């Protein structure tokens, strides 16, 4: 059993959750949603989908084939599609907190999060840049969390995440590149079952600096990180020119691309296959995945949102849960 959070109730989270339940109800990956059942029922009625408030994870397991089970998290204000309201921020974060608690108490095998709006939550007093950092704090493992986005033909791991480009470049360091890449290699082994992971590290500048002609960071920051990783026995190539490292031919050479900033990583991933991309938090004991898109306020309420990325996220959370259980058994 997995726990699915509510996300911003003015976004597409409810719609795609109903779509995911329809696709997965006969599957072996049941989930329970932590949300306001009245909000979900309002959306589900017109689509002939049943939503069932439940009191426990066990009850959720019993009803999953017939109805989308919901552990109630009441919304303080009405949810209007496309019009986010910071007054609902407390319920959005409560849903995440309860899901994490269920996971840390081993009542669920992992959590899948629906998209939140960072700016709306900030207006509601939320102190974290996004889920990734919030989950580190909630699990008592702050600083270990790393973002990976995984698609059918590419995995990317940004070294810096929700920062302006200027701040991201200032934050880059050899130590940070090494620690993020190390976490990625460990996750590829434990979560994705790749015994000898191959990493590719991107340069920061055009042409990966071209020997200092277009920037020094490849020589001063990235190359020393690659040397340190190789010294630890990790297979690494780079610094690669960022404009060509995502071609089909280049992608054959590695299992994950370590990227210097958010868009260097996420643009190729989402352009190649947004529907099947999944955001995975690696480095924590918690299993957490999420669709690779946001709240999509522009289409919320129209019932045109594609649930494929959420379905992929639920399936991947279950795969990671199983891979970790297998790895733990073989180490026992
Ligand atoms: N995991 C998360 O919580 C997460 C991830 C990304 C963005 N966000 C948040 O989402 C908000 C909106 O961000 P954005 O506009 O940059 O990105 P977005 O992914 O919400 O939307 C970008 C475009 O893609 C479309 N789109 C997104 N998901 C779709 C789906 N499932 N089916 C069909 N079309 C879809 C949208 O309609 C929009 O045109 C921001 O507040 C951001 O913070 C949250
Ligand atoms: N950077 C992610 C994306 O653009 O898809 C996203 O904002 C999610 O961040 P969290 O998982 O930390 O909320």
Strand content: 15-25%
CATH class of the largest domain: Alpha Beta
Number of helices: 12
Structural class by sheet pairing and helices: alpha/beta
Spatial extent as radius of gyration:
20 Å
Name the poorly predicted regions: none
Shape: globular
Write the CATH fold name of the largest domain.
Isopropylmalate Dehydrogenase
State the helicity in percent bands: 40-55%
Straight-line distance between termini: 23 Å
DSSP strand count: 12
Largest sheet: 12 strands, mixed
Strand order of the largest sheet: 3-4-2-1-5-12-11-6-7-10-8-9
From the structure above, extract its key features.
alpha/beta; Isopropylmalate Dehydrogenase; 12 helices; binds nicotinamide-adenine-dinucleotide; 332 residues; 2 domains; binds 4-hydroxy-L-threonine-5-monophosphate
Structure characterization notes:
α1 (13-24) packs across α12 and α8 (174-190) packs across α9 (217-231). The protein has two domains: 1-145 and 284-332, Isopropylmalate Dehydrogenase; 148-274, Isopropylmalate Dehydrogenase. It is of the alpha/beta class. The longest helix has 24 residues, at 308-331. The model has no long low-confidence stretch (mean pLDDT 97). The protein is globular. 41% of the residues lie in helices and 16% in strands. It has a twelve-stranded mixed beta sheet with strand order 3-4-2-1-5-12-11-6-7-10-8-9, sandwiched between helices. It has helices spanning 13-24, 37-45, 57-63, 89-104, 118-123, 131-138, 165-171, 174-190, 217-231, 248-251, 262-273, 308-331; strands at residues 2-5, 31-35, 51-53, 68-72, 111-112, 146-150, 155-158, 198-202, 235-240, 256-259, 278-282, 288-291. The chain contains twelve helices and twelve strands. 4-hydroxy-L-threonine-5-monophosphate (4TP) binds at residues 130-132, 262, 266, 279, 290, 292. Catalyzes the NAD(P)-dependent oxidation of 4-(phosphooxy)-L-threonine (HTP) into 2-amino-3-oxo-4-(phosphooxy)butyric acid which spontaneously decarboxylates to form 3-amino-2-oxopropyl phosphate (AHAP). It is found in: Cytoplasm.
């Amino acid at each position: 059993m997995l726990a699915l959070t509510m996300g911003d109730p003015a976004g597409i989270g409810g719609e795609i959750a109903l779509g995911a339940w329809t696709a997965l109800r006969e599957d072996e990956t049941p989930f329970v949603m932590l949300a306001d059942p009245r909000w979900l029922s309002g959306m589900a009625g017109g689509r002939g989908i049943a939503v069932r408030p439940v009191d426990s994870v066990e009850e959720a397991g019993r009803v999953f084939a017939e109805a989308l089970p919901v552990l109630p998290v009441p919304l303080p204000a009405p949810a209007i599609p496309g019009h986010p309201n910071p007054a609902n921020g407390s319920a959005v974060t409560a849903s995440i907190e309860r899901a994490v608690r269920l996971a840390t108490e081993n009542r669920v095998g992992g959590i899948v999060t629906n998209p939140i709006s960072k700016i709306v939550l900030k207006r509601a007093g939320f102190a974290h840049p996004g889920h990734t950092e919030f989950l580190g704090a909630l699990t008592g493992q702050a600083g270990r969390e790393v973002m990976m986005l995984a698609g059918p033909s590419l995995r990317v791991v940004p070294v810096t995440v929700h920062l302006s480009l200027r701040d991201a470049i200032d934050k880059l360091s050899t130590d940070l590149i090494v620690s993020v890449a190390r976490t990625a290699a460990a996750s590829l082994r434990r979560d994705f079952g790749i015994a000898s992971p191959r990493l590719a590290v991107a340069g920061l500048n055009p042409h990966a600096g071209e020997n200092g002609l277009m920037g020094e960071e490849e020589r001063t920051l990235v190359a020393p990180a690659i040397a340190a990783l190789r010294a630890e026995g990790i297979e690494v190539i780079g610094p690669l020119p960022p404009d060509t490292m995502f071609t089909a031919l280049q992608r054959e050479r590695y299992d994950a691309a370590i990227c210097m900033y958010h868009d260097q990583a996420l643009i190729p991933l989402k352009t190649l296959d947004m529907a099947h991309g999944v955001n995975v938090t690696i480095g924590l004991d918690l299993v957490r995945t999420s669709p690779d898109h946001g709240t999509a306020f522009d289409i919320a309420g129209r019932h045109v949102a594609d649930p494929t990325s959420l379905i992929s996220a639920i399936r991947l959370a279950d795969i990671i849960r199983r891979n970790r259980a297998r790895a733990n058994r073989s180490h026992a």
